[in-house]
Amino acid sequence: MTTEDRDHTSLVEPDEAGSRSSHAPEKKHLPVWQETILLLGIALVLAVVIKAVFVQAFYIPSESMEPGLVKNDRILVQKVSYWFGGSPQRGDVVVFQDPGDWLGPEEAAGPQGGLTQLMATIGLYPSGGHLVKRVIGVGGDTIKCCDKQGRLSVNGKPLNEDAYVKGAGAECNGPMIGCSWTAGPVPEGHVFVMGDNRAHSADSTVHICLRTETDCVPGDEYVANDLVVGKVFVLLWPSDRFTFVHRPDTFADVPAASSG
Fold this sequence. Notes:
- This protein is of the alpha+beta class.
- The protein has a single domain (31-253), classed as Ribbon (Umud Fragment, subunit A), CATH 2.10.109.10.
- Helices cover 21% and strands 20% of the residues.
- It has 4 helices and 12 strands, in the order ααβββααβββββββββ.
- A hairpin with a 5-residue loop joins strand 11 and strand 12.
- The longest helix is centred in the first third of the chain and has 22 residues, at 32-53.
- The chain is elongated and about 75 Å long.
């Protein structure tokens, strides 16, 4: 082999090696339709996890929480609010499961049809069988209606509810069953709840056993904490009324229940 041949060979070999490497098999990508299905599957799994652990959507089923929350409003519920030993607090707006006899068959049924039921299951559509009310009393509290100014009292402290009660300034802030009743002490691990639209809210007050009643179940007016799904923290829809839901300041002044 001549010097010229050796030079030619040394120049060709790198090109051949580069040519071989440039034709190495490329990594195949999934077809678009398969990628779409995969992404949808991941999204569904995340939706189920989020619903089960963090946040769930609900709707307002009636006018009982007006004026703040109107029928068919969409809300978001924070499910982690009462984890790690936490519990519902006075003034919280909460969503809870029907204790058993608070809702009629239609209200308890929830969404109908395959698609809406599926969406409700994964937390993308509000589910039925739940109620939305405001916590007025917690374990140990005594609620009384009403003082001379028509105000509810919790543990002897009158509540200033003008900011959120519909019809505030009427005869009293508890007109569904009248203005003269007392509830409590609330059993430990339970809450006493009322709607903000006091004249149109089938809440704890409706289940109180008044002196004149014989066909009622004592204690049915209280909701077990275990039935509480979580605290409402966002009014999501309609978008023009989007707002965060906060605990009214008046509840901060309520004293602890008397141990005696």
